[in-house]
Model the fold of this input.
Amino acid sequence: MKTTRSVVLGCGSYLPAKILTNYDLAKMVDTSDDWIVERTGIKVRHLAREDETTSDLALEAATQAIRNAGIGVNDIDMIVVATTTPDETFPSTATRVQAGLNMLGGAAFDIQAVCSGFIFAVSVADAMIRSGQAKTVLVIGAETMSRLLDWNDRGTCVLFGDGAGAIVLQAHEGDGSNHDRGVLMTKIFSDGRLHDLLYVDGGVSTTGTAGHLRMQGREVFKHAVTNIAAAIEAAAGAAGVALSEIDWFVPHQANQRILAGTARKLGINPERVISTVAEHGNTSAASVPLALSTAVEDGRIKRGHLILMEAMGGGFTWGASLLRW
Ligand code: UT7
Done:
């Protein structure tokens, strides 16, 4: 049966120039390169300059994605930015990007689902496209996580980095089968009872400040593999796709041990896992599109490949998305 699919026309990414190594961090808190690499796989992360905002990073990634998509800015009729580190409390970072692109029509708004933001944004964009409310949607994950970190807390400050990634989705007609290009299925979930395991201790209606990220890492870790695996099984099951058909697994880049554990639990070949955690750290909503972009640029992801994306983050929120490139 003919159906509308949200097809990826192009992607892009941006990482700020400044790099912070594990050795740099060992001069700031009681940690070591050995501990960070062994427990997380992270070696370096990028940090935004003081005058560089989330929308600046988003704009760079978006510009590259639009160029790679081969479309004009005014072909876009919707911008969805997933971020937990907006430039300002309002307006949305997406409207800053819209102005930066000089885009004259359409709608722009943010989505807040922390590290799962990009998966949630893909879900919303795909629903907008399939319902006919939008034709061409720019979906961005962009973060300046460095602004939320307590640089005295070694349990969190070694984990995160800044960056942005973007994709352009466009409505195309498919035949309704799993061989169609585009988003085949996305499943998103949340459980607000797990707030205390991962949150920011500030906000507009509480402290009036931006606050700092707080995490019970070991507890989050315990939930991560279980929740991610369940979301993947839900998405693959609903799409009628066997995990053995997946060409590339593009997970949220929080911790190499979580990536490997999830792949092992689901029987996914480790050679099919895209890992950028060593070079990017955890860039929250930017991590999946950054990893996608990396694997497209280096030629691993090719047109027609079946891609499985997933993420989990504060809220808790989690989800998985299957798409054919
Ligand atoms: O993207 C959102 C989702 N977030 C995640 O998925 C993060 C999930 N959690 C994790 O990735 C891991 O739990 C961490 C990397 C955060 C921590 O690894 P862990 O193996 O769970 O370590 P732990 O928290 O159990 O801590 C082990 C020890 C503790 O010392 P004691 O109590 O055993 O003496 C910590 O104080 O390691 C200590 N520690 C550190 N040592 C050196 C914690 N952070 C550091 C550090 N350097 N940076």
